[in-house]
């Protein structure tokens, strides 16, 4: 087995995950914890593992399926060591960071590296490890020590270290500065690790004299120094590495030149170029709670992007803070309230993503009501689906106190209730319905079934504790809602549609986690197609964008975006941020 370690220096957020994904990732080592505001979204795997969002990059870039064991955290390692100590495996010896913690890290890496994730038999040839955090972080010290020992143990020719660092450009003089990278490499060496390849983040291509300086002071050959400069979208990164022959440098360090094939990136290149050239825009209002941090909805944004590119549309995301739509905001900050509603009414489609807690719930209900009454394409995910059901019960069934027991435990009309697979309400980690679950289509002619290719069932990933109350389903369906997808027991509602609406869909699962470039999620494709007036063509193609639609759009003739209420909304370009457009509230790629 050969190993590639990807580390980061100087500052966080340089793109270690994307760099590792572009090399061909297999294992992620993260020494941090996860929360939406601190680290972005929690990415859910098929086996129910809740992991760092970088594993989402790995799955999307490689179209592969990882497991919870591909994500190592400090907590997992310490727990495994403590469990061994409790069982007496250490025979009463004093348990220490070295060797017990460091040995556990190495054993975990070697064990997981042998497990195939690409659907093929036998272990992979190369295992790529991403070390979370930045060199020098105290939290990652046991991992660095363990990986230093590991590199010595597997030996030269079996271990390659790629260090991602920053080469800033001072605007005053316009000069690329190498000192931060020099200090980062010096710190790395002081911890027992020596980089074989430098991947330098910068705003532009590194000057040759800068490369020469880095090679001299960091003791890395100039041909092993690559530039990861700013690009229109992250799909360019594998192409950057290929064009600078990074793969050849890695193969040379691992003695794999004789067995490796030339990378086939034709389809990837075509999609990347297409994404850069799109000009007809589709505007989606994202109504959520964490609008100040786009990484909290990273997979949702990626799924929207995948669907938009498939429909040959340039994505514009308008961030709408759910609380700003509420009456309380109208009284306290009328300008903020008006701006939020203007964004919502100017969108071609509305998306309410998943979330927890009652903050902003009323605003989400108002957004769902607006989309339903004005025939604006709508997609609700997890909590977003529950919001759609609550709004329908309140407005159509006239059950004004209808609510989720998550928000109002005493409601007399609980249309969303606590339905865990096990455990209690107080221990969240043990009560989630997590991972891949099967959904069966109960209505063959529904939009969702057609978008999924007229299959009988789909497997999608879940992360929730509350669900639609099965005792209210008949009442809701009699009024016009249709629960077209359910689990095998027929008690858990998985997909809901409003048959009288052009596209009003809610899903209890999280389809964004399985969306891929070139293979967009069915429900997201439906939303984007409906938003740009092409849903009929996509439905006729059983979830595939027809050639006539693609050709028409690529020739610059985008269909008019007219909603059934008669309003025509003309899209205007937002500010471009690396190829994805937003209203300026923080989208970044």
Automatic annotation (TrEMBL):
Species per Swiss-Prot/TrEMBL record: Cannabis sativa
Protein known as: CTP synthase
Pathway(s) per entry: Pyrimidine metabolism; CTP biosynthesis via de novo pathway; CTP from UDP: step 2/2
Lineage: Eukaryota, Viridiplantae, Streptophyta, Embryophyta, Tracheophyta
Single biological process term from Gene Ontology: 'de novo' CTP biosynthetic process
Region (Disordered): 558-589
Keyword Metal-binding: no
EC number, UniProt record: 6.3.4.2
Record field: catalytic activity: UTP + L-glutamine + ATP + H2O = CTP + L-glutamate + ADP + phosphate + 2 H(+)
All residue ranges annotated as the Glutamine amidotransferase domain in the record: 294-528
CTP synthase N-terminal domain boundaries: 2-256
One GO MF term: CTP synthase activity
Function text: Catalyzes the ATP-dependent amination of UTP to CTP with either L-glutamine or ammonia as the source of nitrogen.
Keywords: ATP-binding, Glutamine amidotransferase, Ligase, Nucleotide-binding, Pyrimidine biosynthesis
Family named by the database record: Belongs to the CTP synthase family.
Bias (Low complexity): 568-589
